[in-house]
Each structure stands twice: as C-alpha cells, then as structure tokens.
Amino acid sequence: MSKDVLILAETAGDKLALVSSELSGIGRKLADDIGGNLVAIILGPEGTKELSKGLISLGVDKVVVGELDIFDGYTNSFYLEGIDAAVKECSPHTFLVANTSIGRDIAPRIAFRHDASYAHDCTELSYEDEKLCAVRPIWGGSAISHVKSKTESLSIASLRAKALPMADIAEGRTGDLVELNISMESGETQMSFLEAKKVQSEGVRLEDAEIVVSGGRGLGGAENFSHLEELGKVLKAAVGASRAAVDAGWVPTQMQVGQTGKIVSPNLYIAVGISGAMQHMVGAGPSKNIVAINTDADAPIFQRARYGIVGDYKKVIPALTEKFEELLQS
C-alpha cells in the first residue's frame, strides 16, 4: 500500500463539481502530511479528459481518467468496477469521496471489497500515527463523534459538502494523466442509465446558496410559501422546505432539506414554521447561523437557533422582508 491519497472527482455537466475542489483541498493537505501524492479518478464520456487539467490546477498530482460511453450517466455497477480498478491500481492509503448520492453509494461497497475502514459524512480529517482520524456530526448534529481507523489497510471517508474550503487554484501546474485500464461493455450489467431529468428553477441552487429560507408544516398550505419567496427574492436566497411540507404536496421534492433531502450549509438559514426534528436538522444543521420563526416557544428548533422569534410568520416575514429591502437599498 502506498501513502497516496485518492479522491473521486465528480462532474456537473461538462464542468467539475464544486465538491471536487473541496476534496482536492483536503486531499492535498492529507497527502502532504503523510508524504504521498494526491491522485484523482474521474469517470465520464468523451471529453472527460479535458477536466483533468482543472484537477491538476487544484493540487492533484495524477489523474486517472475513465473516458468511456458506459460512464455517460451514473450506473452503479459500471462506476463500482471502474473505481475498484483504480483503487487496485493506485493502492492508496486513503480514499476520499463527497457525501453525494454517488459517494454514498460507492464508498461502503469499496470499503467492503477492500476490508477498509469507513467514516461517513465527515467535517474534519487528519492523521494520527498514519491512521485516518475523522470528526463527524451524529444524532442530527446534536453531538460530535471523533473516530480513528483501526485498520492498517485502506481508509475511506466521505466528506460533507461545504464543510471544508475549496482548493486554491494554481494555473500552469503540471501533473500526470493516465487512462483507466478497464474494459467493460454495456451488456455486462442488468442495470442501464436511461436519462437525466433536469428540473428548471430560477435563482441560486439550494445546495450552493449562502442564504436559505425554509418553510415547514407551520405554514399551513402551499399558497403561503409565497411569503418565503418574497423574502428570498430580497435576500437573493434559495427557498427550501421540510419533509412535512413536501409530503403534504405543497412544494416539489427538490426543495426538501433534511435526512432524506438535501444537506445545506449556508451562512444564514431562516426556518419558518419548522419544529426542528432531528431528521430535518441533519440537513440544516451545518448552517452557520440559524434563525427560527415559530409560534411554539418550546419547538426544538429554538435549541439550535442563534436567534429565535416566537410569533406569527404572516406578520414577521412581511416585516422582515420590508426591513431587509430598506437596508439593502440604502
């Protein structure tokens, strides 16, 4: 086993996803700490090789590229075999993935195949005696767990989005590019990728937003999300929702924040009519500042909020919207 750190780079269309930069940043630090190289694997259809230049500028020493038609769209069996081949070829000390749908699907399978340790949804990583140490929130973020790998073999960790800074860009940096040595045909799996459906939306994406305004069951109905949308426009914020609001059919699934929805980590999270159940706080917990607006003074959300307003949101939100608009225009 080498002392190299391997990261799984992900793409967003024809560009590198932001999580690839975050992985490059922490991967570079860990590789330097242990005296190894930073290696990235990236899978995709024709044109994926071009993205390797971006990874090298983010601090990667070597990029393993799997540029095959079978990687056009995520299919578990193909990705698993491709990534497994890269792990066998590189024999890394540490393998890092983002805590995305792909990372969550792939990481435990690779850990099982290689008898590796696996730390999920980490916010900090370091080494102690060359063993991977991780910090990870548990119980909806109400407690912090410190864990350390017990194995001498491969250690794997998934990183929470936005928990760590993105890598610095070094234009003109050089590195190695190698093609993944693997041969697979579309007929070798019983699963096939059909299509990717893009949801048209206006404004900033929920996952990338610096400010998020979310509504829950306390709003009382779909029509009342208009109050949040008005505030969102003024603050240039994304609008989210709790699972209760999604299950009620008030808003679409892509707006859901929580354990079974999206994990967000904005600078400001305004929770309106949301009780603050653990399942929701898994998604909203990483927010730097939480403002809670609720008529129930005993709602659990107030225990996690930096600021709390006990009152009717139909009076509070319009007042906040008007004040913010006034302040931002001055």
Q: How would you characterize the overall build of this protein?
A:
This protein is α/β, with parallel strands linked by helices and 330 residues long. It has 2 domains: 5-188, 3-Layer(aba) Sandwich (Rossmann fold); 206-329, Rossmann fold (3-Layer(aba) Sandwich), CATH 3.40.50.1220. Helix content is 29%, strand content 25%. The protein has 9 helices and 17 strands. It has helices spanning 18-34, 52-57, 76-90, 101-113, 225-235, 243-247, 278-284, 301-304, 313-329; strands at residues 5-8, 11-12, 15-16, 38-44, 62-67, 94-98, 117-122, 124-128, 131-138, 143-148, 155-159, 176-179, 211-215, 238-241, 268-272, 290-294, 307-310. The strands form 4 sheets. The protein has a 7-stranded parallel β-sheet. It has a 5-stranded parallel β-sheet with strand order 14-13-15-16-17. α3 (76-90) crosses α4 and α5 runs parallel beside α9. The longest helix is centred in the first third of the chain and has 17 residues, at 18-34. The radius of gyration is 22 Å and the shape is elongated. The mean pLDDT is 91.
